[in-house]
Specification:
- By secondary structure, the protein is an all-beta fold.
- The chain contains no helices and ten strands.
- A six-stranded mixed beta sheet has the order 2-10-9-4-5-6, with no helix packed on it.
- A hairpin with a 4-residue loop joins strand 7 and strand 8.
- It is globular.
- It starts with a strand and ends with a strand.
Length: 115
Amino acid sequence: QVQLVESGGGLVQPGGSLRLSCVATGFAFSTYHMGWFRQGPGKEREFVAFISWSGGTTTYVDSVKGRFTISRDNAKNTVYLQMNSLKPEDTAVYYCNTESGRMDWGQGTQVTVSS
């Protein structure tokens, strides 16, 4: 059974940092490119960051470049998103999935950036 379980969200002040984690089970995680996505209030879900199966290639949406870092640990079936210099516009529910969103979506983790 495929499962994606995100964690690490919370309430943080502008300029703060959070580290999100996503544990994947039920599929061959190490062979899939993975991504982080987010859905802000009243918005469509959008791509945030991509990491290749090996971790050797990463890409980001322009709005988070230089602030967010995606990484993965294939031994732990886990993908991470380090978020620094957070802004109010980063407020959203964050999800992980394969690059193409192939798997069933998890519950996500809420990130709220507010003073």
